[in-house]
Amino acid sequence: MDLDHADAAYEWMYGPYLGKKGLVDQKESAVLAGIYRDYLKELNIQGLHNFGLIDGDNLGDYIVKEYMLPSADHFLKVELTDSERSEYLAQNPWMKYENGHADFTFEDFTGHVGRMKELCSFDGRGEGSVFGNESLDERHFTEYGAKKDNPDGFVDPEVTRIANLMNPMFFARINHPGCSKHWYFCIGSKDASTSHSVYILFQTLLQNNGMDTSMTFLWDYGHQCSDDPVEMVDWIMKVSKEND
Questions:
Q1: Per-residue pLDDT reduced to its tens digit, 38-76
Q2: Which residue in 87, 147, 182, 205 has its CB near the most CB atoms, within 10 A?
Q3: HEC string for the chain
């Protein structure tokens, strides 16, 4: 989803954090993070619960307040025994826990998740095969990636068309009448395969557009977690009854 902004989103979230090969080029990372900040201005998305307009400076706070703190609270209070909770907090001193509520900053959280991918995380690392044709196995789908390989490089209009067709964010941005009215998300909080902002901005935009959404972050689960089928089926039954 939103593949043409995924590299920029990744650097916005994980740029200054160590990856498997150490720090990525911080200058290049900052360029991509800046591209994402500009994209956020274009999106013009209002955060839920009167948060206000989301931008590159407050998106991290929004992610923590609206999604990660509730996820951590549920994990600590519901899924762990008292002794398990004490042990977990001792192993994770970056997290505070007072009066039954977790507290941490976006930087604390991102450091806990950790960077997984190198620079550029998507364009030029396999995802471009989606846009391959008869003569090329992969084609660039971002202007940054295209020009990094060749100063005169550009994104083929056909690639842009395909990228838009497969991107639900593209249709949400234009509030396409064919968009589903109900959406369910279940994501691991420790999934470093892409920036959490990709899902969260999409879900928030859907809500701005009047759609019904359910988004759950399973604390400390990783990529492609699907550990709560009962919750998903309950959500399906609820939506089905409401629209019967």
A1: 999 999 999 999 999 999 999 999 999 999 999 999 999
A2: 205
A3: CCHHHHHHHHHHHHCCCCECCECCCHHHHHHHHHHHHHHHHHHCCEECCCCEECCCCCHHHHHHHHHHHHHHHHHHHHHCCHHHHHHHHHHCCCCEEECCEEECCHHHHHHHHCCCCCCCCCCCCCHHHHHCCCCCCCCCCCHHHHHHHCCCCCCCHHHHHHHHHCCHHHHHHCCCCCCCCEEEEEEECCCCCCCHHHHHHHHHHHHHCCCEEEEEEECCCCCCCCCCHHHHHHHHHHHHHHCC
Give pLDDT tens digits for 132-177: 999 989 999 999 999 988 999 999 999 999 999 999 999 999 999 9
Nearest-angstrom CA–CA distance, 217 and 200:
10
Its pTM stands at 0.92
Query: What gap in Å lies between CA 132 and CA 27, rounded to an integer?
Result: 30
Tell me the C-alpha to C-alpha distance, in Å, between residue 8 and each of 14, 160, 165, 235.
10, 17, 20, 33
pLDDT in tens, 231-241: 889 999 999 98
Checking if the pLDDT of 204 tops 80, the result is yes
